[in-house]
Amino acid sequence: MTLQLTDYHRQLAELVGRGFDIAGVDFDAKRVDIVINEDGFRNLPAGLMTAMESYREIDTEAAPDAQYQTPAEVEAFVKKAAQDFPAIVKIESIGKSLENRDIWAVRITGPAALAGATGKPVVFFNAMHHAREVMTTEVAFDTIDWLTKNYGTDDRVTDWVNRNEIWIVPMLNPDGSNKVWTSNNMWRKNARGGYGVDINRNYPYKWGQCNGSSGSTFSDIYRGEAAASEPETRAMMAFVGRIKPVFSISYHSYSELVLYPYGCDGQRTPTRDVVEGTGKTIANLLPKDGAAGGKYKPGTPWEILYAVDGGDIDWMYSEHGVLPYVIELNSTNEGFQPRYATWRDRTVEKTRAAWQYLLDRVEASGIRGTIRNARGENLVASTITVKSMGADSAVDDQVYKVKPDGTFHIVLLPGMYKLTFKFGDKISEEEFVVGAERVDTDVVL
């Protein structure tokens, strides 16, 4: 059902608060799509009943186009990538789903570094937190294909792969995907108890704290019994804690949006000039699907959608200092499962501009280095506090945790910064002038 809202934020928040399944929005037109059954239709608030613009019945038992990816096909794809490109690709299962399916991750990096820790910056892409969002896995597949098949012949791709560790999780929610293929093509959550938990409302940061999720098992944004209660969530948390990416994109659908932290009303990130500026640049690279043109809409969830708590990007930023983004692919016309033959290639091709921009941006302005002691040993439990010295900067003090190999990579805008390095009771302060190019440094504590 499509509703034309006259008071967008208030009415959208009311729908979320009442547990309706928000499928997607057209922010500019102030329209919202909801997935609703007969009981839900009868319980639609009277004020919103008159807002109904259109209604379309969905056969939830019909599987998506066969070319989209099942869990078994994802496993076969990543194993073939590792077999075909052993010099630059390794794969691993980062954990098991509730129903004991592997959650696969693909690591792409230069041959000299593939065998072990590299100290390289990490860029991370993940797909299918939500099972019905089948196009997201296609973008992940295309990223793997593009990097592997062009390595060694395309100088730009070769440079990205040699300079970085690129990690891709093409399907975080294999159990939910299985339900999409076998019983309900509108299934969103994992397979917990037959009712499911929304993995992307299950992360610890602000879990259940700002009316951005539901405590009802019937809701499609059910947050679970406790923060990080789900094995898929825990697998992602452990993985991110190990690789500590500089950037992350979490692919979702649909609505043609670029979202960045934070999700709760009024909350903004301390480093918002970098976080939000990068998000706006990404959005401007992504043309909308419609003939009328336009670009994706950037913003925090509470600005352009509704409050969200327990989401992955908020947790990644607050816990590990990752610069994380959600890209909501495709428009309200295409929905969750657009016709594969028409929309698959068009979607993945234009989305390349977003992830490729981040692989370029990681080499630009910022500070990268290693923290060691006087014996040359890396200090892996160090922290770094960054303070902008510019009077007009929108950057507050931010604390970063050093990667497990003792290295760090902090993305900044050009300017002057004071960094405080700390390991136990040892502290060192240094000032850096950051220009258009990255500053490399080693710190001894």
List the defining traits of the structure above:
single chain, 445 residues, alpha/beta, Aminopeptidase, Immunoglobulin-like, 3 domains, 8-stranded mixed beta sheet, 4-stranded antiparallel beta sheet, 19 strands
Would you write up a description of this structure?
- With 445 residues, the protein is α/β, with parallel strands linked by helices.
- Helix content is 29%, strand content 24%.
- The protein is built from twelve helices and 19 strands.
- The chain has helices at residues 8-17, 38-42, 46-49, 71-84, 135-150, 155-163, 174-182, 231-243, 272-284, 301-304, 312-320, 340-361; strands at 2-4, 21-26, 31-35, 52-54, 89-96, 102-108, 122-127, 165-169, 247-253, 257-259, 297-299, 323-329, 366-372, 383-388, 398-401, 407-411, 415-423, 426-434, 439-444.
- The strands form four sheets. An eight-stranded mixed sheet has the order 5-6-8-7-9-12-10-11, sandwiched between helices.
- β17 (415-423) and β18 form a beta hairpin.
- The model has no long low-confidence stretch (mean pLDDT 92).
Précis, in short:
With 445 residues, the protein is of the alpha/beta class. Helices cover 29% and strands 24% of the residues.
Overall structural class, as computed from helix and strand content, comes to: alpha/beta
> Cα distance, first to last residue?
60 Å
Please give the CATH class of the largest domain.
Alpha Beta
Shape descriptor reads globular
CATH architecture of the largest domain: 3-Layer(aba) Sandwich
Number of domains: 3
